[in-house]
Every structure is written in C-alpha cells, then in structure tokens.
Amino acid sequence: MLSRLLCSKLLTHKRSLLYVFPPEIRFIFRRSDLNGTTFEHLFNTSRLIHSSGLHQEIAISSPNSSNQDSHAVSYLINSCGLSADAAISVSKKVHFRTLEGPNSVLALLRNHGFTKSQVAQFVKSDEKIFAAMRNARWAFQTDYTTFLVPKIAFFREHGVPDSCIALLLTNHPPAMMRRYDQFSEALVEVKEMGFDPSKSVFVLAVHALLKRGIWNRCQQAYGKWGWSKNDILLAFRKHPQCMNLSEKKISKVMDFLVNKMGWQSTAIARSSSGILFSLEKRIIPRCSVIKVLSLKGLIKKNLSLLTVLQAPEKSFLENFVIKYKEEVPQLLGVYRGTVDALEA
C-alpha cells in the first residue's frame, strides 16, 4: 500500500519520471491513463517481462536469416492484431523460438488493460522494445520508490525544476541510481559552488561530481597544462561536461590549441565548452581555416575559441570560408583537410 501511495504522489511529475526509461519503454507507459494503480501495474508488468526472461523467447533475427513461414505471419495477425503488411515486416525481423513466451507476454499486457491496437503497436516496435528491456536492465531490477522518489523530492527541495530533473533522467539515468548519500552530497556541493538550481547546468554539474574518479583524473590532466584550482572551477562552471572527459581527449585537444594554435592555456578555461567538440571533425578543420586567415592578415588574431567552434556549420562557412574564397581559393580544401594550412 505504501508503494501505491508513493506512486500516486509521483503523478504530479509523472512525465519527469518516465524519462528514466528508454524511448521504446516510455511508449508503454504513455499508452495508459497513468492513474496510480495503472502506473504501478505497468511498471511491475515491464519488470516481470524482463525478470522472467520472457522477452528472450523472441529473438531478433539477423538480416541474412530466412523469412518465417505463414504460421508466424498468421500468429502476428490473429494473436497480435497486426495488419498483413505489418505482420510480414515483423516476421522478417524476429524469430519465435516457441509460442509460450510470446503468449505469456501478450497475456500480461492484456491483463493490465492494453487494448488490441496498443498490443499491436507494442509488437510492431518489438525489435526496439526488447532491445531496450535488455539494455535498461537496471530500470527493471530496482524499486523506483526507493531509488527515484527520494532523489526527485530532494531535487525539488533545492529548487530544481522538473524540466531539469527530466534532463538528467533522459541523458544520465544511472546517476539517479547512486546511493542517496553520494547523490545528496554532490547536489549540496554543486549548490555551494554557486550553480543556479533553476538552470539545466546544475544537474549536469551534479552528474559530473558523482563520477568523482573521472573528476580527479580530469583535474590532474588540466593541471599538467598549468590550470590552477580556480581555473578548473571556472571551466567547470562554464560547462560541467569538461570534467567528464578522458585524459587522452584533454591532452590531444589542449596540445593542438596551445602548441599548434598558440592559444593561452588558461584562456581556454574561460571557453571550456570548446574542449568538448570533436578534434578531428570540428576543432582541427575550423582552427586550420582561422590560422590561414590570421597568417594572411585577413582577420583579427584575438578571435575567441567559442566564436570559432560554436558557430553553426552554415554560419562558419559563410563567414570564414566563402567570404574569403577570392583571397584564398584553397581555403575550402584546408577546411576539408585536403590542403595543408601552410600550403594555402
């Protein structure tokens, strides 16, 4: 009864709670009215499907496997409510080892109020549904009233809006499965650092601090480039994800920006989001263009890192490549990596 009471209280923010599941699992819950009883039944139904191994009775076929015979198509039409075309399509993607498993899954869904059309939609999404159940195993093996409810409540007590809680659940759901003491300590520490709880960056900072081992390695990596603790804190406040990178990533990006581009190491701390971009796909192509233009005196040399890296692709091309095609015909080649910056 306590579980049902807590579940009912969650209804004021049920949309946020749903984000703990992959998109394919959220579909199941959104097809219901989500009253307290139904929500609890659906959650437990999904856990039962997963824990019982019933989803393993339906195996995803490889692209090279042969089509199933007409019996499988007939089963999908008659038992699952699929149209003929949909049944043929699904039969090419899955293989029923036995009918016992699929029948049990269908019975569970129907017993918990799923209509024929909802069951059909579930089955049509089978490949993603069952893959999601395997990949999100932790979501079905824990008690959400124990792990999620207290943390969502703690977030709210500190002024974090539902939209930000949903962001964390969507992008970093395992963070909500940490021990409550670790979770609360990280949240309080982030608040003491001066982060605004009403902003999305707050929950990203909480997520970063929960990975304390990675945080410490990042701190050491930046320290090798002369960053002080204040520089690191400044970078973290600008973009918390800069403290969630590999040492190799930090080293390669800093080496390019400092040694090849000539940017001051500590100045990069003020533009820490730039470190997150792909070195090969964005940083090197764009910075190479800027280097050519700077050497030729076509642009000022004190452009900020964010001006260079954050601009949308179309905007960057228009302002730094197409604009100077007469003066530097090979600039597009530099951008594409087919021409060396020193040869342009």
TrEMBL record:
<protein>
    <recommendedName>
        <fullName>Mitochondrial transcription termination factor family protein</fullName>
    </recommendedName>
</protein>
<keyword id="KW-0804">Transcription</keyword>
<keyword id="KW-0806">Transcription termination</keyword>
<dbReference type="InterPro" id="IPR038538">
    <property type="entry name" value="MTERF_sf"/>
</dbReference>
<keyword id="KW-0805">Transcription regulation</keyword>
<dbReference type="GO" id="GO:0003676">
    <property type="term" value="F:nucleic acid binding"/>
</dbReference>
<dbReference type="InterPro" id="IPR003690">
    <property type="entry name" value="MTERF"/>
</dbReference>
<keyword id="KW-0809">Transit peptide</keyword>
<dbReference type="Pfam" id="PF02536">
    <property type="entry name" value="mTERF"/>
</dbReference>
<comment type="similarity">
    <text>Belongs to the mTERF family.</text>
</comment>
<dbReference type="GO" id="GO:0006353">
    <property type="term" value="P:DNA-templated transcription termination"/>
</dbReference>
